[in-house]
Structure formats: structure tokens, C-alpha cells
Amino acid sequence: MKLKQTYSYLSDQLKKADFLPLLLIRLTLAYGFYTPARMKWNDINAIGEWFGTIGIPAPYFNACLAAGTEALGVVLLILGLGTRLISIPLMITMIVAIVTVHWANGFEAGENGYEIPMYYLLMLFTLLILGPGKASLDELIRKKN
Fold first, then answer.
1. What sections of the protein cross the membrane (predicted)?
2. Closest C-alpha to 87, from 51, 34, 37, 123
3. How far is 84 from 66, CA to CA, in rounded Å?
């Protein structure tokens, strides 16, 4: 009986922190997209050239599109604003990255494989389905309406 009560008590206490997983997913993704977005914008012409060499159509346009999506994603994920909406183009960016860059290298992250982009894709899919969580501007706006 004591074990059941202890478990129930601990479960109730953990429910108080149910906002944390989605917040941490958002912040982790924002952190993960920050450096690639900054790197792309620092030399967008080189990124466009590289995109061309790996067969991405309209490489300069798509370099700007990817960099802009990632940069906007950083801001919106931190704020928890438009989370479901920004998750879609970020997921597309991850799928393109997996197919064009990482797939041929296999799964392992250390071999520049698709492991990390796949994790990002799964986290973005989670945000698309569940939303940003309680600690977000999306939730604040929803409550005001």
C-alpha cells in the first residue's frame, strides 16, 4: 500500500513539470538550428554554390530559403510562437538535408550520417502534433482568446 501511495504522490509531483519536455525540445532545436543558420548567412553565396554541387535546384534561392527558415525557426521556437507552423518548413529542411547530404553516409552522427537530422525531425514532428506546451506564447494567446 505504501508503494502505491508513494508512486501516486511522485506522479502527481511530476505532473507539475509537464511543461518542461516540450519547452526543452523547443530550446534544444533552437540551439541546434542557430549555428547552421548563422553559418549559412555568413557566406550565403558559398552555401548556394555548394547546394548547386549537390543537386539542389535553384541553389541560391534554396540557400536563402533554408537559412531564413532556420533563423526564423530559432526565434519562433524560443518564443513558442507559431510553433506548429514553423515546424513544417523546418521538417522539410531536415528531410532535404537527410536525402541530399546525410543519407549516403549512413546513420552514425560521427560519420556525418542522418542520426542528428533524424532526431531533429522527430522532435519537430512532436511539436507539430503536441504543440509548444504551456510555456509558450502560443499557449498564452490561446488562453486569451
1. 20-39, 59-79, 86-104, 116-137
2. 123
3. 17
Query: What was the pLDDT predicted at 1?
Result: 73
Do 117 and 98 meet the contact criterion of CB atoms below 8 Å apart? Answer: yes
Residue 145 predicted with pLDDT over 90: no
Q: What is the largest CA-CA distance in the chain?
A: 67
The answer to whether 8 and 15 have CB atoms below 8 angstroms apart is: no
- Model confidence over 20-68: pLDDT tens digits? 999 999 999 999 999 999 999 999 999 999 999 999 999 999 999 999 9
Cell of residue 64, nine digits: 536563402
The grid cell for 59 is 541553389
* C-alpha cell belonging to residue 48: 548556394
CB atoms under 10 Å from CB of 127, counted, come to 23
